[in-house]
Structures
1.
Amino acid sequence: MSLESGSLSSPEFAEFSKTVVPFLHVTTKIEGRENDGLLGVYGGRGFPTLKFLDAKGEAIGDPSGRSVAAFKSTAGALDEVASLKKRIKSGEKGLKASLLAAELELGSVKLAAAKERLAGIKKIKPDVKAKIEAVIVDMELMEFMGTMTRDNREEIVEKLVKMAKNGKIATGKAVGQFWSSVYGWAEKNGDLKLAEQGYKYLYEQYGSDKGNAEYFKKMKTRIAELKKPNPDA
């Protein structure tokens, strides 16, 4: 799903870019090209890989999505982390859960560490806990989907479908891969409820990109077909 024809070409991004220093690196695999391996240096696994860097070039966070709203949210989380760390250092109590939530939004905490830190926090507001747990679910899904290969794809997708039916769903960074997989299964197997869910979550994440208009048009057409009575039923 194209960034160039969507978020990056929008007036909102032009305005947001005034608050940061945009940097584009194109990996070419041209032998001897300086810094051509930056994608690997920053842990990128595909194109495009989006990162927030500090003034020293250190990776400090991953955008929570590909929309301008997600970019702004992540930039806000960076400010929040800096502020919370400063307050904790000064001796203020009860901020550990908020710090964990903000760091998770940035993608700067590993799954095992996030679970350990959450378990060690005795008092936590329900809304903050729900936010943390939602991100942890996304991290678990990303890790699980990372095991998908050509040979086990069908098995993995069926497990994702089962998770979706049981309410364990992706809502953040895992939305694209999770719901694309689930929607594909739902379309093939005539599951209207799951198809509509997949459309909803994918459209919320990528619908603002004009380059995806045809993709979502086809999804709506297929969902309309699924709603028609089956004469053979």
Note: Residues 7-143 form one domain.
2.
Amino acid sequence: MLVEVCDGYRYNEEPPEGTFDLPAGKRLVTPDPVPASPDITGTLPAEERAELVRLISASEAGWEAGDFRAFAKAWKFKDARSKRPLPSREEWRERVEAQKGRRADWASRIVSVEQADYFPVTTGPNACTGVRMPGVLQVRTSLHVRGAAGGPEWEGEARFFVQRGKTGFRIVHWEAPVEEIREATRAKP
């Protein structure tokens, strides 16, 4: 893991003369940017898109019901020996079971699918780290949540990270602002 600490910044100062001058005879070239995560939404075969929809729906149904067995059917959890900072099967079990009875509705819609080699994993309130997993699909979804018993609603974005395997797609990670959702959908006295 790489940790970079930066300090000693100085603001509102003029840079030294010539800092941004180009060498004699050279010109500034601005290459066309190559997206780090190419969007493949439009080229994804219909049957694969349908499989992603089923997979995410199954995971969310298990999450909403607090049913870990149903939730886990859509997942491929990290190997116990893995050094990746992904939550373990047991951590996911605790998270899923803690959701039971808290939501009346939890539904998402796929917005885009991107192919990536890295994805973020939240490791603390204001921290995340990147996990390298070549060829992972980042499935961006719009998410609508309603609290139990007609409670308040929340709308925003969640991202699923999905890997292709021999038996089809499996979710390897999911990033959603669960604490924000929990607070926003809590019934107010």
Note: The beta strands are 103-124, 127-147, 153-165, 168-175.
